[in-house]
Structures are given as structure tokens and as C-alpha cells.
Specification:
The protein has 301 residues and is α/β, with parallel strands linked by helices. The protein has twelve helices and eight strands. It has an eight-stranded parallel sheet.
Length: 301
């Protein structure tokens, strides 16, 4: 058993909300982030700098960033898909940039109306600008496990994206199972590929539980030595450009898995559970997560 620290990067304020029927107000989004901070989360994907006409749930990103507590040991990241989004993110003083590139042309065209090759040119420009501003960059390869438009995605397709991430000088490489089709064998294969192509760059994973394999994939990633995993309080979320998308793996459920496996997360699970219930009341739906419903184990005497 290990007592090693792992980081759960909280994505509920971004991926957890972006596909929900009810958009939350700026004040509610700030309150959500503040509650997550109180729960011990120290990396939070707070906003997405995308076109608000296409994703109205992510409108007012600048206002959300302006309302957050700073200099409290929490790193707030912003997702960007293009140069315009990156300019907005840097002007908003994000702590991290997350630039996302689909691994397939089908998803890239649906998401950005350009091919992967053109998106990789965006990566080079975005990374250069962010690094000039002293802001660390995560390069995320979306649909790395399977695509809703092109079907199966090969390791070689993801390798082509990862190679450009490494050449551009990103600080972290994330692999996203955007539609929840991944299995542990793919986790192992992709982890090995990233370490071969981009040695020394930390690897992070973003899992969805669409087909009930998200936690098996998280366990496999931990066994492979990955120490940063995305999750969303309550298990809310999904990609608005991905048909039949369902939720992220839940922060409280992942925390249970990690802690029971001997890792340390620094997260107060009960606060995450109460936060998820609060968000669920605003979204008018029950959190998909199970840890809150199942209760504390071992029982408190």
C-alpha cells in the first residue's frame, strides 16, 4: 500500500456544467468553485473560453475568473480551442491553459470546423504565447480512446497529436476519453506511448463513465504511475459536441477508490458530496455519483 499523493483535478465547473440543460449564473459558478476549494481541491478547471453562442453554459468566463479568490494555493485553469480563446484566457489571468485538440478529423471538424493538422498549428501558437506570459500549458488529446464520428482511434493517431504537444513544449499531456469508450488496456498502451514520445512530461487522464469503465480506467492509470486524474463533483458532465455524452467520473467516487488503494488526495469527501448535492439542486437532477448515496465506509463508531 502506498501513501503517495495524487492530484484530482476538478472539472465540474467546466465539463460538469457545459452540457447541462440549466446554465448556472456567474455567482453560482463562483460559489461552486469556492465550495470545491473548501473541500481541499487545489487544481480546478474553472472556465472555458469558447464561443458562448455555441456553449451558453460557459458564457461570462471573464466574470467568473474575476470573482475567484487568488493567492490561496489554488490553480485555476481555462480551456481554450483557438487563439481568440487563448487571448481571453491570458487576459483573465488564468493560472493554467488547457488547449484541447481532437485526435480525429471528424471530431475536430464538428468541434472547430478545421482538421487536426490545423488544430496542431493552433497548439504551437497558443503554447508559445502562454509560455511567453509565464503560464503553464496542458495539451489535451480529446477522443483519444474512440470518436463518435470516426469510430476507433489508433494509438498512432494519438501519437501524432502528442508528438506536436512535446515539440511545442507543453508542461503536461492529458488524454481524454471524451465519450467513455476506453478500457484499461488502452490506458496502458497510451501511457506507454506518451512516455516514449514525450519523456519527462507528466501524463494526466480525463475519463468519462459512459459505459461503466471509467473507474477501471482510473485504477489502471494509477497502476501505471499516473498521478493526476480529472473528475467532476457528483459525476456531472459531458461534451456538447459528442452525441449521447454522459458524465465524468465523480470526484467523490474516485477519491474513495484512490484512498482505499492507499493514496492520499487531500480532499474532504463529505464536502464534495454536499457540494454535488447543492449543484444537483440547481441543475434539477440527482448527482450520478455513488459514494454519497452509499454512505461512509468503514462505518464511524
Amino acid at each position: 500500500m502506498s501513501s503517495e499523493k495524487i492530484t484530482i483535478l476538478e472539472v465540474c465547473p467546466r465539463d460538469g456544467l457545459q452540457n447541462e440543460r440549466i446554465p448556472l449564473s456567474v455567482d453560482d459558478r463562483i460559489e461552486l468553485i469556492n465550495r470545491l476549494v473548501k473541500a481541499g481541491v487545489r487544481r480546478i478547471e474553472a472556465v472555458s473560453f469558447v464561443n458562448p453562442k455555441l456553449v451558453p453554459q460557459m458564457a461570462f468566463a471573464e466574470e467568473v475568473m474575476a470573482g475567484l479568490q487568488r493567492d490561496i494555493g489554488v490553480s485555476y485553469s481555462g480551456l481554450v480551442l483557438n487563439q481568440r480563446g487563448n487571448d481571453r484566457a491570458l487576459a483573465s489571468s488564468v493560472d493554467e491553459i488547457n488547449v484541447v485538440v481532437p485526435s480525429t478529423d471528424g471530431m475536430s471538424r464538428a468541434n472547430q470546423n478545421i482538421d487536426v493538422a490545423d488544430m496542431l498549428q493552433v497548439v504551437r501558437a497558443v503554447t508559445a504565447d502562454a509560455k511567453s506570459a509565464g503560464v503553464p500549458v496542458t495539451g489535451t488529446a480529446a477522443v483519444a480512446f474512440g470518436c463518435p464520428f470516426d469510430g476507433e482511434v489508433s494509438v498512432d493517431q494519438v501519437r501524432a497529436v502528442v508528438r506536436v504537444f512535446a515539440e511545442a513544449g507543453v508542461d503536461e499531456i492529458a488524454l481524454a476519453d471524451t465519450i467513455g469508450v476506453g478500457v484499461p488496456a488502452q490506458v496502458r498502451a497510451l501511457t506507454g506511448m506518451v512516455r516514449e514520445v514525450a519523456p519527462g512530461i507528466p501524463v494526466r487522464f480525463h475519463f468519462h463513465n459512459t459505459r461503466n469503465t471509467g473507474y477501471a480506467n482510473a485504477a489502471a492509470a494509477l497502476e501505471e504511475g499516473v498521478r493526476v486524474l480529472d473528475a467532476a463533483a457528483g459525476g456531472f458532465g459531458g461534451c456538447p459536441f459528442s452525441p449521447a455524452a454522459t458524465g465524468n467520473i465523480a470526484t467523490e467516487d474516485l477519491d474513495f477508490l484512490a484512498v482505499r488503494s492507499g493514496f492520499h488526495t487531500g480532499i474532504k469527501r463529505d464536502v464534495i458530496v454536499s457540494t454535488a448535492e447543492w449543484v444537483g439542486s440547481l441543475l434539477e437532477r440527482t448527482p450520478p455519483a455513488l459514494a454519497g448515496r452509499a454512505g461512509v465506509f468503514p462505518p464511524i463508531s
